[in-house]
Specification:
Elements: H1 2-31, E1 48-63, E2 68-80, E3 96-97, E4 109-110, E5 127-131, E6 135-139, E7 141-147, E8 159-168, E9 176-180, E10 196-210, E11 213-226, H2 229-245, H3 259-280, H4 290-314, H5 317-322, E12 330-333, E13 343-345, E14 348-349, E15 371-372, E16 379-382, H6 384-407
Helix pairs in contact: 2-3, 2-4, 3-4, 4-6
């Protein structure tokens, strides 16, 4: 039994020693005259095809103010190196090796629209594999900070399109060409973002000419759809409720002493929410978000309600002190088919000392008291508060419904 274990151990050690010797001999043979400065082709008049797969791992942040997309991307680049080929049976069955990145030729890719370092794949710790048939696979990864033009017209119900561009620097299209192995971005390893969802993507290559040289570009377009629920619940819904509560200022009696302060409080609350929305949006006038226009209309409506409230309170200070009812602006008879919102009571005619003689009774009101018009069976007295409440309710409804229609188109 002991002799059997010894034989197995010797065989394993002999195999390991043979593999190590084969690996050393392989490195000496293929890297002895290898140069990283020469394209891996025996015929230098041909071009190297670099096949790529764009793997989107995560979207870390979209800076809406600076309009910058922060993401983490892992690329899968494959090309044929004619200088790195061998027969596995001649080197103890070795089919692939993992040389240092500095010892092998690689296509140097840059991101032209990057807001940071354009050479994003300079990390020397990424994996690279060389197969016996000369196929090289490189898996570089990097954190990207790329420019992304945002159209926030339908914010927060918007869909944005961002683009990644990759350019093989130092080589034109006659020397190196990018080839997209798939038509979309690889998203099986994608980590979902709490604010954005990836709806679709597209990967393709094209050639662009600069001065006298043509370069091969790799483009990746991604379409992101915003998750609007957080913004709706925390900004839009409170603003709508506050603006609706602002209408009820006209139900408060003038003698309560809280009429003007209530209107100003609602105005200040709307102003705070406007500042919150302003911090989330870019400093651009190219496309104004409809939610900003909606909030501006509500703010303007709130300002008008404050002004109307102040005018109502200042209309007759003497009556406020005596706690007397507000004088009607005009009267709509009860038989009118269109019922106008107002206080329902019998029509009271305010008659002053110098009033004329009443045509139906022939009586004069020498004391200046309020007389009841017995000719009328009652009607709808439209006061300033009643009229303002109807006007501002209609205005609020038109603005809110119009905004809802615009964002759902």
């Amino acid at each position: 039994m002991k002799s059997l274990c010894v034989l197995v151990l010797l065989a394993v050690c002999g195999s390991a020693a043979g593999s190590i010797e084969g690996m050393k001999r392989l490195y000496n043979d293929i890297f002895g005259n290898y140069s990283t400065k020469i394209r891996p082709l025996y015929n230098q008049s041909q071009h190297v095809d670099v096949h790529s797969i764009f793997n989107l791992i995560a979207i870390t942040e979209i800076d809406q103010v600076r309009q910058v997309l922060h993401s983490y991307v892992l690329m899968n680049l494959t090309w044929q190196d004619e200088f790195l080929t061998w027969k596995p049976e001649e080197y103890n069955g070795i089919k692939s090796i993992h040389p240092p990145l500095t010892d092998i030729w690689r296509p140097k890719l840059i991101v032209p629209v990057s807001l940071e370092d354009r050479d994003v794949f300079k990390d020397e710790t990424s994996s690279i594999t060389v197969h016996s048939d000369g196929r090289v696979t490189w898996l570089p990864g990097a954190n990207f900070a790329t420019d992304c033009k945002l159209d926030l017209t339908l914010f927060p119900f918007d869909v944005q399109s961002c683009q990644f561009r990759f350019l093989p620097v130092s080589y034109n299209s006659d020397e190196l060409r990018m080839v997209s192995s798939v038509k979309t971005a690889y998203t099986k390893s994608f980590t979902e973002n709490g604010e954005w969802s990836l709806s679709s993507s597209r990967a393709y290559t094209t050639e662009r000419t600069f001065v006298d040289y043509t370069f091969s570009f790799l483009y990746v377009d991604i379409h992101l759809e915003r998750r609007p629920m957080f913004f709706v619940l925390n900004v839009i819904l409170p603003v709508v409720v506050l603006s609706f509560l602002n209408i009820f200022v006209f139900l408060l009696p003038c003698d309560s002493g809280e009429k003007v302060s209530y209107a100003i409080t609602c105005l200040l609350a709307l102003t705070v929410f406007m500042s919150i929305v302003g911090e989330l949006l870019p400093r651009s006038s190219d496309n104004i978000p409809k939610v900003t226009m909606y909030l501006t209309c509500l703010l303007f409506t709130s300002v008008l309600s404050v002004v109307a409230t102040i005018l109502i309170v200042m209309k007759d200070p003497a009556k406020v002190n005596k706690k007397t009812p507000q004088s009607p602006l005009f009267v709509i008879p009860r038989f009118c088919s269109l019922l106008f919102s107002g206080s329902r009571r019998k029509v009271m005619d305010q008659v002053q000392l110098d009033s004329k003689i009443d045509g139906s009774t022939g009586n004069r009101n020498p004391t200046g008291q309020v007389l009841e018009d017995h000719r009328s069976s009652g009607g709808y007295c439209v006061t300033a508060d009643s009229l303002c409440m109807v006007i501002f309710t209609a205005l609020w409804t038109v603005v809110s419904v119009g905004f809802l229609i615009q964002i759902t188109k």
